[in-house]
Amino acid sequence: MTGENFATTGQLLGTVLAVQANFYRVQLDEKDEEMREIREMREQDPPHLPHPPHPLLLLCTRRTRLKKIGQQVMVGDRVVVEEPDWAGGRGAIADVLPRHSELDRPAIANVNQILLVFAVADPPLEPYQLSRFLIKAESTGLDVLLCLNKSDLISPQEQQQVSDRLLGWGYKPIFISVKDGINTDQAARYLSNKVTVIAGPSGVGKSSLINTLIDSLQLRVGEVSGKLARGRHTTRHIELFELPNGGLLADTPGFNQPDMDCNPEELIHYFPEARKRLAVASCRFSDCLHRDEPECVVRGDWERYEHYLEFLSDAIARQTQLHQQADPESTMKLKSKSKGKGQSQYEPKLESKKYRRISRKTQLQDLQELYRDEE
Ligand SMILES: Nc1nc2c(ncn2[C@@H]2O[C@H](COP(=O)(O)OP(=O)(O)OP(=O)(O)O)[C@@H](O)[C@H]2O)c(=O)[nH]1
Ligand SMILES: [Zn+2]
């Protein structure tokens, strides 16, 4: 089915906020008069459940037809809901709309942006760690928003220095202080009407920020309390939370040190400052890894070039490992070949194809694992 088919009236559309056992918590769009009426009706006559749910939330099953065709339903999916039982708060997912993006960890569909939160102090801002998180975030292909919290702990001069430095990396961070309520409104504006995943190391104030951002939701829904979803659930639990000004927010529990699981040839594109160089010039070799190749336009005196080289060797090491697992013979072939040339350790085209195949498989396994966990 194509996207247009869903534009027809009479269909209930919604977003999957969470997966619980074999049920999907779906928040219906409040797009027209009819839905407003339904909401009002449910508000007046709440279902006889211990905790009356959000009026537009339905606990849904997945239609057998979807199971048969192997159509998974992810958090963040836009779905068509049939047979709503308003009194019981139930429904059935009949279709999944095409996804415009699909994150792997956490497994969430249709995310628009990653909000990376770091602290300027306590814990100290670690450039290498920040770089690592940025690369990981960039590798999703989504927009990356950088918030630096605890700005109350540094002087305006120090803040300017950090700001200048990160501008050199190609980022314009928002300095916030959740404690003093500085710029949190500005951060909230960036999130409105978007699906955002929040990430960052431990102790930087992610929970504090989330609680500030969705304070009114906690009051309204009354089912989210205290430290939102953090610590309350296993690290596998994924949930989208509604923001008061529209938009959804998900947390990434247990995401402290991201793996560098990207492809060596793609790595350079996750550095905005290098992207700028590549936009105006080209390296002599199309498969240049920007190390010691002649006529490379990327190699140079930019601050994070050292980070690039380190991440590159990580990425190559990881790829070699993947090769050995997937196909020991081909690795041996590659090895003997590289000995002959005494240089380059792999053939980009071959590797990239293989890499993608493996990566899709692991993605699927991750998902299956997730659903098993939830059952
Ligand atoms: N000085 C200062 N402290 C803050 C600020 N925001 C949060 N904190 C403190 O930083 C500590 C960590 O905050 P959390 O919100 O738990 O951090 P987190 O990123 O969620 O940490 P994890 O749950 O470990 O991932 C707490 O003691 C907060 O009170 C801020 O703007 N300024
Ligand atoms: Zn190059």
UniProtKB/TrEMBL annotation:
Main location: cytoplasm
Keyword match GTP-binding: yes
Keyword annotations of the record: Cytoplasm, GTP-binding, Hydrolase, Metal-binding, Nucleotide-binding, Ribosome biogenesis, RNA-binding, rRNA-binding, Zinc
Binding site for GTP: N149, K150, S151, D152, G200, P201, S202, G203, V204, G205, K206, S207, S208
Residue ranges constituting the CP-type G domain according to the UniProt record: 100-258
Cofactor comment text: Binds 1 zinc ion per subunit.
Pfam families named in the record: RsgA_GTPase
Location of this chain's protein in the cell: Cytoplasm
E.C. number(s) listed in UniProt: 3.6.1.-
Required cofactor(s): Zn(2+)
Domain EngC GTPase: 109-256
Regions crossing the membrane: none
Region (Disordered): 323-354
Alphabetical list of PROSITE patterns matching this protein: ENGC_GTPASE, G_CP
Keyword Cell wall biogenesis/degradation recorded: no
Main enzyme class: hydrolase
Binding site for Zn(2+): C283, C288, H290, C296
Function description: One of several proteins that assist in the late maturation steps of the functional core of the 30S ribosomal subunit. Helps release RbfA from mature subunits. May play a role in the assembly of ribosomal proteins into the subunit. Circularly permuted GTPase that catalyzes slow GTP hydrolysis, GTPase activity is stimulated by the 30S ribosomal subunit.
Subunit text: Monomer. Associates with 30S ribosomal subunit, binds 16S rRNA.
Family: Belongs to the TRAFAC class YlqF/YawG GTPase family. RsgA subfamily.
Protein known as: Small ribosomal subunit biogenesis GTPase RsgA
Organism: Nostoc linckia FACHB-391
